[in-house]
Every structure is written in structure tokens, then in C-alpha cells.
């Protein structure tokens, strides 16, 4: 509690909340995918995807804050492995999205589930940038465990409604994208955005 009061009093707490909100609500692989999921599957079927993102990313923040981020410095080749894995997996997801069927066909398909969405965070370029940036900027050195768990918990609370907004928006677009030709254009556009989201990890250095 003392740590939280100290952070809040110094403005660090408010600054971190702002960082978490802006980084969570702005476009990226997660938001692109839940927007497409909302269009293709509806909000209710996208809820496990949303929970997987929020809790999976919160776990990533905790592990990075507790020292996982230093792995890239100690073993630089792990960063290259991450780049390749992210590029391959996001390219595959983009292809699957671009070649998907219409709303009627999707009604019998399966959206991304909780575990898969949580695991996806480890090859999500924006998630790595957010986690490393948050931990390197806002984790105080005193009482590290409490500090890291506090940050990861706040991120989960802010991240879930931020990402859910994209799913709600996608669900609202369903009736406007009932035409299979229009939906195909939408899915191709989302696939291109997924590919564009690779830029942060392809251009960044550990």
C-alpha cells in the first residue's frame, strides 16, 4: 500500500495508467484480431479471446518485470528467434483471415479461444514493446515483486475494456458486412493491418 501511495503521489501511478490506456486502446495485432472476430463471430463468442489477451498479457508484464526482459540482453539470438516466430505466425494468421468465408460460414467456425489468445501474446510484436516499455519505465526497484504484480494487475484492469471496445465495434458492424464481397474486403484489410503490425519488432532492437 505504501508503494502504491508513493507512486500515486509522485505522479508515476497516473502516468502509468495513461500509458496502459493509450497502448491498450490503439491499433495493434490484438485489437485488429478482436475487431475481425467481432465482425465474423459476434461479441459473445469473442469473450474468451478478450480474456486470453488481458490475462495473457498481464502474465507477460509480470514475467518481463521480474527479469525475463534481460534474456534478450544476455542472449541476443533469442530476439532474432522471436522476430522470426512473430513474422511467421502473424503471416499465417493474416492469410487465414484474408481467405476466410462469410458471416454464415463463420457461424459454424471457431473463434480464437482463451489459451490460444493468451499464448499469442508471446509472438505479438506490440505486446513485447508494451511490456518491455512499461517495465523499463515504471517498475521501481524497491520491493520489486509487489511493484511488478501491481503494474501487471493494473494493466489487466485497463487492457480488458480497452480491447473489448474493438470487439463491440466489430459486432456492431456485422449487419453492415453481411454481403460476402464486402466482408472479404474487410477481412483482407484486417489481414494487411496484421502484417503492418510486424514493423515494431522487425525494426526494433533488444
TrEMBL record:
It is a multi-pass membrane protein. The chain crosses the membrane at residues 51-74, 81-98, 148-170, 182-202. Keywords: Cell membrane, Membrane, Transmembrane, Transmembrane helix. It comes from Cupriavidus malaysiensis. Pfam families: LysE. Its main location: membrane. This is Lysine transporter LysE. It is found in: Cell membrane. InterPro entries: LeuE-type. It comes from the Bacteria. The keyword Transmembrane helix applies.
Amino acid at each position: 500500500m505504501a508503494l502504491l501511495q508513493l507512486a500515486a503521489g509522485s505522479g508515476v501511478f497516473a502516468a502509468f495508467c495513461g500509458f496502459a490506456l493509450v497502448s491498450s486502446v490503439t491499433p495493434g495485432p490484438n485489437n485488429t484480431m478482436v475487431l475481425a472476430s467481432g465482425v465474423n463471430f459476434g461479441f459473445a463468442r469473442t469473450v474468451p479471446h478478450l480474456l486470453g489477451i488481458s490475462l495473457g498479457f498481464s502474465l507477460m508484464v509480470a514475467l518481463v518485470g521480474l527479469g525475463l526482459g534481460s534474456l534478450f540482453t544476455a542472449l541476443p539470438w533469442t530476439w532474432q528467434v522471436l522476430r522470426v516466430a512473430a513474422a511467421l505466425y502473424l503471416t499465417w494468421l493474416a492469410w487465414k483471415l484474408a481467405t476466410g468465408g462469410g458471416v454464415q460460414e463463420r457461424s459454424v467456425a471457431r473463434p480464437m479461444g482463451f489459451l490460444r489468445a493468451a499464448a499469442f501474446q508471446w509472438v505479438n510484436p506490440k505486446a513485447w514493446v508494451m511490456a518491455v516499455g512499461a517495465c523499463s519505465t515504471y517498475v521501481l526497484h524497491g520491493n520489486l515483486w509487489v511493484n511488478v504484480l501491481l503494474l501487471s494487475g493494473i494493466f489487466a484492469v485497463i487492457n480488458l475494456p480497452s480491447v473489448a471496445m474493438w470487439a463491440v465495434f466489430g459486432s456492431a458492424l456485422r449487419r453492415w458486412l453481411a454481403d460476402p464481397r464486402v466482408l472479404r474486403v474487410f477481412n483482407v484489410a484486417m489481414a494487411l493491418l496484421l502484417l503492418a503490425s510486424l514493423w515494431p519488432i522487425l525494426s526494433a532492437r533488444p
